Amino acid sequence: MIAAPLAGLVFFSLFAGQLPPMWMEAVCLLVVFLFLLGGSHRHDSMLTLDVYARRSQLCRENAAFKTVGSLCLLVMCVCSSSPILPLCLFLFLSIVTVAAGGVKLREYFSLLGLPAMFLMLSGLTLLWDFYQKLPKEAVLFLPFFGGWLAVVPAAQALGMLVLSRALGAVSCLYFLSLSTPLSELLSVLRRAHVPDIVVELAVLIYRYIFILLATFRDMKHSAASRLGYQGLKRSLRTTGLIYGALLANSFRRAGACFDAMESRCYTGQIVFFTPKKQVTGKLICLLGFPLAGMLAGIWLFS
Amino acid sequence: MKELLRFEQVSYHYDSGGQREALFPLSVCLYEGEKIAVLGSNGAGKSTFFLLANGVLSPRSGTILLHGEPIGKKEKQRMQLRRSVGLVFQDPDVQLLAGTVEEEVSFGPMNLSLPEEEVCRRVEMALESLGLTEYRNRGPQYLSGGEKGRVAIADVLAMEPQIMLLDEPSSNLDPSGRQLLEETLETLHKKGMTLVVATHDVDFAWHWADRVLVFHRGRLEKDAPPEVVFAEEELLSRCGLDQPLLWKVAKVLQIPVPKSLEELADYKIGRKTE
């Protein structure tokens, strides 16, 4: 709920003095509306990412190719000196993820809500700055403790660039994570000679976060059913108790899980069998087009 | 019958101390193709027995012999034990690890460093035996309790052990899940595998097992066919167990104890009509 007015404010500061008032109002209202429509993310959305990835039409494509492609796009997007390129990339990859991948538009928007909140907060701090004396070129200003909080065009340009780069980068990562299940991603990392310890930690964290969340939910429910959340003081106490018990639980669980792995001849390396996937023409087109576009764009703008 | 695994005066105790969950000198022998039920109340030492038999724990004293060869404390020898003896944990969540069912089942065979085609064949075989082929690309964490249990069994089956130990496999299952589990056990038995099932369910032990081990406070109290074990009411009540329902029914009706409901129906019972 906070995200929508926040986004409105950020966009207002971003375009103040650059667009005619009518246009500006329209843009701000559109943004607020979009946020109200899809921005309400659920807290388990980090976990649903993996479900969407498995459901995606692009899941059958070669994971290594997808990873390398989207990482290249990410680097180019962050290097871009104009805000237009990342925005085009964002549009293109969003369309690919939704249309070619089969992720529902609503779900995609809801997932964007999560990073959007961070984006908006950082955008706000980029745009508004504190000045002792009011700068002449300020487009928006507020008196603040004897000085001024103001937005200057240079900050607007910087904000625009940073926001668009971040948006483009998010779309790259979403393209990858909404089309590639984590297990395949990890096997790509392994083949890229990322240290085993990192990959294995990722495997275990990924696996046990589900268990930890489920345990936490059960404990919370059972505490709530015993009226553990009545009043602020009691809620705080209950929350502390639950976290403590969760720690004890995790230790016990970790022991049991290690036993289970040992019993299946675990010798210090977690390896799974992953079926090989071919690089298809479709994927080459889908990733080759934005790669070429970005290269051309960077060359044009430099 | 071929001898597979032998415990000779094996004992174990946990460092945290206490009599619970420890195992006192235990001697027992498992043969090929047996169906064994392990009974006992909580903390009777069933799980410790399983962890020892699987080589996760190593005995404080005594010897474990596999095919007549003693297993030492060396990692390599314990690995041999883990290859031949598979252990299905009570809580499948403890066991499940990978992102998809297929990968999950491949974890064991991959650890055996088999060639890729062999891993493929074993995964295929295990998935098929447990009717999991259509779940292969699903994430195990999104499956129901019964399905998770089946994946846990497939995990161990893919390692093609000679003995499979199952720690209370039916404790989290609904009635239809139990039915399915029994069918699974039957399939495994037909493959010639030795099955050892820890359970609280005396009815299941009665109609399924051909040998029953009763544990109580870390001691093996009885090792006999079910007919002998369930006749000893004093033993049962001392170990916190109960007679199977069919035994109680037979006692009331004063008929020989039937193995199943169908068998019970075969007896001509002179019904009382009032």
Features:
heterodimer, A: 302 residues, mainly alpha, 2 domains, 3-stranded antiparallel β-sheet, 3 strands, B: 274 residues, alpha/beta, Rossmann fold, 6-stranded mixed β-sheet, 4-stranded antiparallel β-sheet, 12 helices, 40% helix, globular
Characterization of the model:
The complex is a heterodimer of chains A (302) and B (274). Chain A has 302 residues and is mainly alpha-helical. Chain A folds into two domains: 3-180 and 278-301, no CATH class; 195-263. Chain A contains eleven helices and three strands. Chain A has helices at residues 3-15, 21-38, 45-55, 63-79, 84-100, 105-127, 153-177, 182-191, 196-225, 232-263, 281-301, and strands at residues 129-131, 140-144, 147-151. A three-stranded antiparallel sheet of chain A has the order 1-3-2. In chain A, a hairpin with a 2-residue loop joins β2 and β3 (147-151). The longest helix of chain A has 32 residues, at 232-263. The mean pLDDT of chain A is 84. Chain B has 274 residues and is of the alpha/beta class. Chain B folds into two domains: 3-243, 3-Layer(aba) Sandwich (Rossmann fold), CATH 3.40.50; 244-274, no CATH class. Chain B contains twelve helices and ten strands. Chain B has helices at 46-54, 75-84, 92-95, 101-111, 116-129, 145-157, 175-190, 202-208, 226-229, 233-238, 245-253, 261-266, and strands at residues 3-12, 23-31, 35-39, 61-66, 69-71, 85-88, 163-167, 194-198, 211-216, 219-224. A six-stranded mixed sheet of chain B has the order 6-7-8-3-9-10, sandwiched between helices. The longest helix of chain B has 16 residues, at 175-190. Chain B starts with a strand and ends in an 8-residue tail after the last helix. The mean pLDDT of chain B is 87. The interface between A and B is large, with 30 and 41 residues.
